[in-house]
Specification:
Elements: E1 6-11, E2 31-34, E3 37-40, E4 43-47, H1 63-81, H2 96-99, H3 101-110, H4 113-116, H5 131-143, H6 145-162, H7 177-186, H8 214-217, H9 224-238, H10 256-265, H11 275-283, H12 290-298, H13 301-307
Antiparallel strand pairs: 1-4, 2-3
């Protein structure tokens, strides 16, 4: 079976010097010592399944491929830098609502002229990527942004319907029940697919849900992609100043201080600290009001209302 892009943590990064029998473990190829503590070195595997090139042709990446590998690198960074005392909360083993935050943030770097200037060049001449080509790509993305948002909302709603407590348990045991649920979501006027609408209506005898692999690992939490897109956009704007740099600041998205803030306040904790506390700490760099930071740090209804006022970035 085809395996899409994914990251796997073969060995997480965690503290090991306080384990039972740790005194007999020497620092070596799998253990490093830092600040008087020992941590096991992580092993992270990326599977991207990019198309093979034609014989004799170079393995060039499409824009989609590039964004995919940056997305998966975001997960890998989380796994490698998320070091704490327990393997079950190391790296990406955090609340599902926030697990896509580092990976979605890395997608911004895949579209940043500053980051692309480090490696994007013509494979024959070595000429850098023309800025106009990047602007054309951005305009095309914005042109279809509404369709992308519609698709994400549809998949989030379908995921919720399948995992709802109100779902008929007897109906769920009958053949074809998941397709019936799919058809009802397609017909929901909330998605512009009801009577009189022609936007991606249900097609009889099709079972698209069989391709929706996130139904398994993200049960009832697929909405986290949209939530984390908003959170990542806020960090990108307020910490890395990628889309709207202030005239007074000389910082760019590759600023070391911004990267260290992300590492120390969010990535290094994995699931070992309340993610709302991590989010508030990352944003608390003077670009966000103290009142907003206080609201976010509580992680309650007011925090969600605050996030609801943030923009969904143009992806």
């Amino acid at each position: 079976a085809h395996v899409g892009a994914a990251h796997f943590t073969a060995r997480c990064a965690r503290r090991v010097d306080d384990d039972v029998g740790a005194a007999t473990v020497d620092a070596g190829s799998t253990v490093v010592e830092r600040d008087g503590m020992r941590f096991q070195l992580p092993v992270v595997v990326l599977i991207c399944n990019f198309p093979a090139p034609e014989p004799g042709a170079p393995p060039l990446l499409s824009w989609g491929n590039l964004e995919t590998i940056f997305h998966e690198i975001g997960h890998a960074m989380h796994s490698m830098l998320g070091q704490n005392g327990f393997h079950n909360v190391a790296g990406t083993r955090c609340p599902v609502d926030f697990v896509e935050l580092p990976s979605v943030l890395m997608e911004h770097f895949a579209r940043s002229p500053h980051a692309l200037a480090l490696f994007a060049s013509h494979f024959k001449t070595g000429a850098p990527l023309p800025p106009e080509l990047l602007r054309q790509r951005a305009r095309r993305r914005q042109r279809y942004a509404a369709l992308d948002l519609h698709a994400q909302l549809f998949m989030s709603a379908l995921d919720q319907r399948y995992h709802a407590a109100a779902l008929d348990p007897e109906g769920a045991g009958r053949p074809g029940w998941s397709t019936q649920v799919l058809a009802r979501v397609h017909a929901d006027p909330m998605f512009g697919c009801g009577p009189g609408h022609a936007l991606f209506g249900h097609v009889e005898n099709t079972r698209w849900q069989a391709r929706f692999t996130h139904l398994v690992g993200y049960g009832a939490s697929y909405y986290s992609y949209l939530l984390d897109r908003v959170l990542a956009g806020r960090i990108w704007d307020r910490v890395f100043q990628g889309d709207h740099p202030s005239e007074q600041s000389a910082r760019d998205p590759l600023n070391r201080d911004a990267g260290e803030r992300l590492r120390s306040e969010l990535l290094r904790w994995g699931g070992g600290r309340n993610p709302w506390t991590c989010l508030a700490a990352v944003l608390d760099n003077g670009s966000t009001s103290h009142r907003e930071i206080e609201a976010i740090s509580r992680g309650n209804r007011q925090a969600m209302l605050t996030v609801g006022t943030w923009r969904l970035p143009d992806m």
